Queue: 3 jobs
Job 1
Amino acid sequence: MSDKRLTFKKRLHILKHHYRGKKMAPAFNALHTFLFAPDETTHSGSHVRAADDLKRTMNTVIMALIPVLLFSMFNAGYQHYSAINGFPSEFSLMNDFLTWDNFWIGIIKVLPLVVVSYGVGLVVEFIFAVIKGHEVEEGYLVTGMLVPLIVPIDTPLWMLAVAVVFGVVIGKEVFGGTGMNILNPALTIRAFLFFAYPTWMSGDKVWVYEAVERAGGPDAISGETILGYLAQNKGAEMSYSISDMFFGFIPGSVGETSTFLILLGGLFLIFSKIASWRIMLSAVVGSLVMGLIFNGVVDAGWIGETSKFYGLMSFDFWQHLIVGGLAFGIVYMATDPVTGAQTNRGKWFYGFFIGFLSVMIRVFNPAYPEGVFLAILLMNVFAPTIDHYVVRGNVKRRMKRLKNATILPKDSAGKANELHAETV
Amino acid sequence: MSKDIRIKKGLNIKLVGAAEQTTSKAVLSNVYAINLNDFHGVTPKMLVKQGAEIKAGEPLFFNKNKESMLFVSPVSGELVEIVRGARRRILSLKILADKEQTGVAHDLLNVESASKEEVKAYLLNGGCWPFIKQRPYDIIADPDANPKAIFVSGYVTAPLAADLNYVLQGKEKELQAAITALGKLTPGKVHVSVGKSENSPLADLNGAEIHKVSGPHPAGLVGTQINRVDPINKGETVWTVTPQDLVIIGELLLTGKFNAERIVALAGSSVKAPKYYTTKIGTEISTFLYGSGVEGDNFRVINGDVLTGTKSAPDGHLGYYNNTVTAIPEGDDYEFFGWNKPVFNKISATRALTFSWMQPNKKYELDTNTNGEHRAFVVTGMYEKVFPLDIFPMQLLKACMVKDLDEMEQLGLYEVAPEDFSLTEFVCVSKQPHQQIIREGLDLLHKEIG
């Protein structure tokens, strides 16, 4: 058995040398390194290296997304059948949720989104790698999984394909590829969809499978999100319980409904030291603070029940975390190391404002009561500025140290004084 | 008086193959070599011709940019070859050693009463000046500079590096002489650091401020200690000397002779019986490498420790500054699904299906595989966990890569040497060559500003 594997390994090794320097080398290498960790050795510097590479890092994020994906596949069916037949009066996880029928809807609706996202995105990545002659980088492994999870389930596949091409090219490759981009590529794709095809991205019909087709007919089904409901200020008692919201048995973008599983994914990412706990924690704090401010405004009686903001403003501050895409955004999007703040202190500010602005946009944006993706994109743009000020703080400290330096070399004292004069 | 330095950030890399504390005498080498790459930034100007007979301690060449800086031969014999590379650049000098060694004898210097200039001239003439390095730029110290302090790190945290407490035993007299002499060279202090819970021969030196250091690697790196005790500002210079070089300096001061003898740790998982050897600077590594036995034939010999050393052939020569030689397996093989399956036999700073965090005391047998390919910087916050200096490592690396001199200066490039980035390089998931980036940055800064 081992002989056979050796031959395969060797054959690929020979092919690698055959492709070296040729145009298709990046494409071959991408497939080769997918199967086998490369035989590269160190040359200088540290002769030994830690076990993890970028592939492993990205893979860890994907693993943290798998439970969310599986849940979303069941939830796709659950929301669909519940909208048609009515919600079960006594909910049973095994009988009502984890059923083959529900999962089948997931297979026919969610899986194609995943396939199109990866297929189109990776083709674009491969083309750019071949044109530019660099290796296929791993950034899209995570983006490709995030994209299907943050779109409405009824998003037409061709729209997704167009958006993915736009997002990968404009959101990433024009900046130089993985590691150089300013905006989160997955959110760029989402933003493109939102602005190019707004009717497919908001409203009350796109969140549940078949709601669009049945709209207007006698068997129309409703499937608005909780945020949509609150934004319309309907006032009547909401039909979803807190536990529905927390465990995710609600309509919404494909993968963002189950706060519980997102929380588990977040804890896994923090435990594995892949994602920044600073960003997650500060974003949660930021959203709670904004929620509290709005609750305070309502409690103080500054706006009445007739106000169009009343529904969302009076929504309990902590419940913002368990509806909509806030939790998903905080755990999987805000923590993107490339587009987020890169300094530890900067991460606190970056996260806080993401949470703060998400809830603010939620309340004040009448067209689309979901703010997290806009808040993250906005903070993506500000992240370098935040880092700049944090780094300047360090530089200032160094300059101050220079000013206070007591023992100056005798012959360089004059020089140092000049420097001092420059920096003051 | 002693002050404590406690380092929290860092990572101890525990490897199989630490040298056992027994010392053998290495077989005498026929040919000794001086590798010019050991002297970064030095343009050599030869003082002797090929074929000349030279004595131990006799100058071979000087630095063209600083003519007083002499480099001496570790042994007596015949200069058999001047190995040259492109554009006749000298790569190394080979000396065929005499059976009976003879050395140059200098007049003795009374260190206690000598002036700064006398000490300086004595060390320059005696060939011990190259042992004194300076920051900024991590090069051999400029004899005309006036360092604000001199640092000696006697605390070893690098993986598999020679245990200084062991190799310095019985050398207290030499160390004291060297410290007294160095004290004359700076208006500031001589800072010596020792392990907090260790019994170091350096602990009782007079004329130095002793610091007790604790914490994981890189607590033992002199750069970490400088950053904690007396960080370098723009326009300032700090000198550093390693303890094993202090011994040679001390011996020159006490006996008037340059004695290139050194106790070297031979370590690494490819060595069957890792231990210490008494040998000389420039010796062929094979004179003691095979004596301890090696595993297989696919191994790498490293002149120095695994994090900062240089790759060497088994028949290469011991570096001018090294007291450690490491041999570890080459990792030039593919690993099926190596990027996603659980990893139990390698060290990692994350817990991404890697399990070294579960066994913090386990010793690993790492090879030279990079465990991944070179990528752009993606992950953040990783370096900061193992980088205790008050510097932003990633931002500084990026400033060096884009050659932004202002940023390099402001972010603290004056304070660092490439070795300070050895751990960030180790944990880097993008497999960037940090030490090389910093070295190039320092060279550029030196050329443009220094």
Note: Confidence is low (pLDDT under 50) at residues 407-424 of chain A.
Job 2
Amino acid sequence: MLEYSFEGFIREDGTVGIRNHIGIICSVVCSSVVAKEISDKVPGTVPFVHGNGCAQLGDDFKLTKNMLVGISSNPNLHSALLVGLGCETNQISGLLESIPDTKPVKGIGIQQMAGGENTIKKGVEIAEQWAREAAGQERQRMPLSSLTVGILTADLDEDSLFKVAPVIGEAVDRLVHNGANVIMGLSKTLEPAGGLLSERSAREEVKNRLRVMGEGLQRKRWKEISTEAPAYQGFSEKERSQAVLEAEMTGTSPIKSLLGYSEIPAERGVHLITVPGNIVEALSNMASSGCNIVMIVSSRGVLTGSAALPCMTITPKNQDDYFDELVDFRVGEGEVSDQAEAVIADLLEICSGKQTSLEKLELGEFSIPHIGTTF
Amino acid sequence: MKTFEGYRRANGSIGVRNHVIVINTVGELAGLTKKMAQLVPGVIPVAHQAGKAQYPEDLEQTIRTLRGTAGHPNVSAALFLGMGEGDPAEEIVSALKKDGHHVHAITFQKGQSISVVLNEGKLWLEKAMERSRNEQKETADITELTIGLECGGSDAWSGITANPAIGVCSDAVVRDGGTSILAETTEAIGAEHILANRAVNPGVGEKFLKIVKDYEMRIRDTGEDIRSANPTPGNMAGGLTTLEEKSLGCIKKGGNSPLMEVVAYAQKPAEKGFIFMDTPGYDVESVAGLAAGGAQIVLFSTGKGSPTGSPIVPVIKIGTNPKLYEIMSEHIDVNAGKIIDGLNTIEEIGEEIYRKVIEAANGVPTAAEKHNNQEFAIWRLAETI
């Protein structure tokens, strides 16, 4: 077995980033334009703007707060500047208290700074200082045990699954064998394989949850609009057979845990993570759970990436015309082990700084899912 | 009779701005929407993350908002970006075209290259910009104007200065035959009986009480208490103690005119006069709903100071206290704090706001417009599936 490594940026807590972004993060939609303007003025910064942050209650609010804490903590961020309004539910002070002390983090508010102009001026000053520091930091050779790789499937048809899944599965096994963390998005299409996946977990709780999911119990629905839908619904044979193929992408090692929103894995290995049907929100959740990079496995390529994470787009080879400029890796007809090796080689190059297609096109977004309504 | 100079649209409506926008139907295209807008100077991106993985009623509201936004009289032309088969972009565009709007849809299909699509969009937008530059203004009557009423970052002065002054303006607009839409159902809680009593008939009153009650029920169903999020931390720092107190001040924006109609979020009123729209207390989402429902200008009172605007409508900021105006004048159009200092009466500030409305309608940029504050978000009714 080859000794895999990549070149990354080491953070104070020992975690490793593969990018050195300065995050400019709004706490609420009201400061989104100001945050974006700060970012526009300082090269090396990335804006994390979203529509949430106020008039939210209970779990929906906690999710927003946790996701911003998670994004700020992501090792791909060199530093994080939180930009608030002042009167919002999601207070900057609360965010600052919750973000672990692993990197430069500061918070400023428009009301506290007496206006947007002052806030932009102050924000630019802070970000420029950090940008200088970040530019002086050099990449260091790192082992795979400091890497967390996400996998997200998007619009995969059966034919593509058939070609791609064995290669990804083999690559995942090698990554995990070398100490990397792998977090696979628990998409709706993967759910029917819950029974199969449950056999790979040693933990009773994880086993049970996966088994129940595989039986086709519906997710909790918003009751006012779904009264006609049955409470119990099984899966079709086709859904099951596709799910089995999709499950192959998780490789063969034990499933360590089922991660919710913004949950960071407690041990190394293969994990599954909750992903909503909106791809930007799915990627944002992976970022807030500590992923460094995501492999987006698709039949056609996707039109957006993540603001925090390089997204390596992987498709089957025979569809050259499908959003050609979006694809990073095409799985062909060759030996599975050779292709898995090639996937890892490309992945590690991206980790060491090579731009992905989506990065070149500057298509990276951020969004926070809702689990309730705003008020 | 009061008049202003606006842009006459094919469907007879009148715009106070002449925007060319790019708008996406699904979140995956938000990045490309911004990229597309950057290709042609002056084009405004209206990007959002809604449109995918939503429950039916929630999705319906999103689509209604997108349609209302693109079909707004302030919009000269709108380019929709959609994704794949079954995307609503084509359907929205064909409905808007029937109503005489200058709109176009680009739906990404398998096999298309991004550069080709970006180029197609760029060409359409360049022509749309040229077309908009050639559109002439004409004189319109105040009866063709709809204002929306909003407050954000309220303090203890809101209900004493800015909101009653907005109420004076609202009554004057209604008296002159125009339309004024009060929003924010959250901030009617505790004061609903007052507005219900002003309903033009029992049906309207009952409908109003029902949306407020449904609102409270929807919150209770989640096991939460609205009072734990509202008043917000900033409201409390500003001296507000309870939601009821906030609400009593909030509804002052609606003046004393009879309540003619109650409409859903982003729904266009059928009546003229004083209207209520069911929106959340979340400012940016509420303003987006008012705009999508046809308001050409939004009045926005603030006690703590908020820079937010809209990509579609001029937002006029009315500051509630003199200190705010002193430190944050860049975000304030009218200083209602002068009432506290005894320099002006509520009536006089109300008249000043009305003059600002006409000024903004004639094309003078508001504070939010000067700073390009174009925050946009759609009210989400339920979780992302």
Note: Chain B touches chain A through 74 residues (CB under 8 Å).
Job 3
Amino acid sequence: MKFNQQSEQNTEEVNGKKELNASAEKKTKWSRKRKSQLTSSLFVLPYLVMFTAFLLIPLIYGVYISFHKYGLLSKDRPFVGLDNYKKIFDPNSYVNEIFFTGLWNTFQFVIYSVPLLVFIGLGLALLVNSLPSKIRGLFRTFYFIPYAISVSVISILWLWILDTNSGLLNNFLMKLGFDPIPWLTSQPGAWISIVAATVWWTIGFNMIIFINALNEVPESLYEAASIDGAGAWSKFVNITLPSIRPIMLFVVITSTIASFNVYGQPYLMTGGGPGDSTNVLLMGIVEQAFEERQLGSASAMAIIMALIMIIVSIVQFKISKAGQKGDQ
Amino acid sequence: MISRSKKIFLISLASVIALLFILPLAWMVATSFKNDFEAIAGGLNFLPKDFIIDNYVYTLLGDGLSVPVLKWMFNSIFVGVSGALIIVFIDALAAYALARLDVPFKKTLFAMFVSTLMIPWVITFLPLYMEFSHLGLLDTYAALILPYSANAFGVFLLFQFFKGFPKELEEAAYLDGANKWQIFTKVVLPSARPIMWTLAIFSFMTIYNDFLWPLVATSSPEMRTITTGIAIMQQGSFVSSYGKLMALTTIATVPILILFLIGQKHLIKGITQSGIK
């Protein structure tokens, strides 16, 4: 459109100085707009550079790597098409075993931890909210503190509490006359340990989200229910739960994604054992990349893992939406 | 409204649970002051019989110690602070421009940035390693800092804030002849200070506590962060000395805990805002 105005200038020269001035003004207005857009773009540029360099390029590069036999150290990295993907699904390949053992272990962790992370998070939020308002902040801080600490400190702390011979928990059990339990070197002890440490570590985050959601529920709904003679449980089921449903979905999805990414706890607490029962998928991918030095198949595994995570999130979202419709 | 006995029950329940969250940490600190014999013997003695600071002296300055714990602390804090500064700076610029200025294709750009929040990071982790390897930047501060700056969370968080920022203040400044940069730094940024603190604290904690990326991105003992350093010590020379290990974990935890307690309000705000859909 702006260019048309310029060509108008050429054809309508006869219309005199006045017109010329007007179009010159338009032209400067136009270049001013271009200049303004340019300076505005400069604001976005630094982030765009980082985004491109450390997110967009790795994303594309990751797909590229997955189509190659890509040794970590070798210079020769031939294109192999879908071979890396095929191997994952070929029951005779060792990559297949690493992938599906890891996936199964990761699924187990997700299934054990997510319901606890959601329901204990909600339970703590309800508990904190039912306390006198003066001490709410204090207890919220207590439950939230472990979230500030790194996974290596958390793992070492729990490793030590759960130690078979000198751990705090077994010492306590022995005082009560029980035999010590080899928490980290037997199943289901190892899963219980990893899940307990994870819940203890991260539950504060979910609790905060739930506290906020609970505070957003309009007080008038509860008042109306009280007038109708509804009890505490009935209020919880009929008012609280439906009101916080979107936040519940958010917590379920973020907890699921976080649980899929579990690495530090099994790596440091059980080393993937006993056997390979807590060897999660991310550990398998890291091993494949840095010990086997096969980045091609490790990348293919990472991409399939990511696709599974995306699919699981979408399914959770759809189920929640379907449930909401069913209510109405 | 709540009966007195119910109130007492709720407070007691909350207190018992609070103990579960606090005791392990208190025990970590208490053990860091015990000698090895007492620490390994375990038992249920909470306070050290023999209160010693040797574990700290050895961990921080020990002659026979082959690892630089103080350097690890420096690395973690340096990397966390620089990372947080970069993130806050570039995210604020981008978010403001996308929310308020006439950037071409801004809707497309914003949609592209936000959609990457849904991409699991596991996809980018190995290629990122190779990228830094090609650039010859593995085992450097660049590798420990730069990857975090691509995360779109901050852009998203600040974008929401700038969208809701009253236009009148900016317009008044435009009439006074201020340019975009002046308006951004003099008018917009001062009012965005709290939300930028939120993002800064969030970013610092994420970087300080991250484990897998610094573990693979660094290889020399001098370039480790405290979080990865601990993991190495636990599997190495501190494996049998709980007292020293607990001194090390306490050293790693104290700075982040202080920051956490100071910045808690901002952190809660950030979590709350990230939870709003």
Note: Residues 8 and 14 of chain B are 10 Å apart (CA to CA).
